[in-house]
Amino acid sequence: MKRGLTAAVCVAAMTAGIAGCGADGGGEEAAAREITVWLTVDAQKNWPELVKQADEAFAARHKGVKVKHEYFEWTAKNQKLDAVLATDEVPDVVEMGNSETLGYLAKGAFAEIDPSHFENSEQWLDALRESVTWNGKLYGVPYYAGARTATWRTDIAEEVGVDEPPADWKELTAALDKIQKKKGDKFSAWYQPTRDWYTGMAFVKDAGGDIAELEGGKWTAGLSSPESVKGLKNWKAVIDKYMHGDKNKDDADRYIVYGQGGSAMIYANSWEGATAADPKFDKTGGKLAENLESFALPGTKGGLMPNFIGGSDLVIPAKSDARDMAADWIKGFTDTKAQRGLIEKGNLPNAKSLLAPLADDPETAAAARANENTWFVPMAPGWLQVEKKQVLQNMLNDIAVGKKSVEAAAKDADAQINAVINGG
């Protein structure tokens, strides 16, 4: 069995008419002596050196202009953003998940950018570029992309006689069954937070279902379809058999929980396994670093589990009075040097030209392969409301803890989705 973590891969993107980056800022700089950059805690915890690198490059071009950073958990960021967008005190750069942008674009919240000012823009990943495109114009810059891969402990797999990653769902569940039996019911053969909707919906897609479909110009929820219900039941079977942690948790601290040593496998963002092995989080006495292996998760019907094309974009609020300087900071934070730094952290880059070599590298092949079968959220006007209301998270949690049957939970979720997905 291959030793060492097979690094995973991530995916995301968006546009606006900002002036040339790298200029001195002119009158803008005279008025603004500070720009504010909002990023999620992923950057703060996992690649702070890349933020510092961008700050230093920016400082060299804009003497005396400070960069103020604020970091947010994903669940809290948009509530704060909604509040400040109603005022004139807006940040100058904001990280957005690629599934979050559509509602803001429709409302004109972000400034248009000129892609020619950003390195590799002609090679940006289609899914990321699309997430920041509105009416043919660009309102954001792809930051990084992500794939989700399975990562398990080879030492635990070898304890039950498994020395190769599973080739299909049958091999995977056979191995997990052996691990679960050997380790007992206080151990999670597969630690899977129930509120992780990206995984729950991957099972739905795997079974031929969908969150919602567009018919006749109208979006209609589809979680209660026979195919979607089958996928949700497949997901619940995993939770019931292998997940023996807190069934009310989300996935925000999954890598921390994994580092504590109470589970054999996670299905997560590609960087999470490597982060769990960091000495700050590894509570196994150093066993993780030498005993992690990543692989593309098999699907239940053959082939690969559909992989959510996730990722982040960087946008500039239209109300910012430092849009040129904001664009210049983004330019330094998304150039080839920065993208290579993100690759080293287990992320997928924002450009096809940087992504291609990863499939041939044993350390990144799992993440690259995971993206051979992908899915994305409905690009519907009200999708952001579905996310804000945590409809999918709550449905999955209700199913996992037995509060509702799969059928009842799916029917209730469909009603909530239909109420908002078309922009209502």
UniProtKB/TrEMBL annotation:
The keyword Amino-acid biosynthesis does not apply. The keyword Signal applies. InterPro entries: SBP. SUPFAM superfamilies: Periplasmic binding protein-like II. Keywords: Signal, Transport. It comes from the Bacteria. Belongs to the bacterial solute-binding protein 1 family. This is Extracellular solute-binding protein. It comes from Streptomyces thermolineatus. The lineage of its organism: Bacteria, Bacillati, Actinomycetota, Actinomycetes, Kitasatosporales.
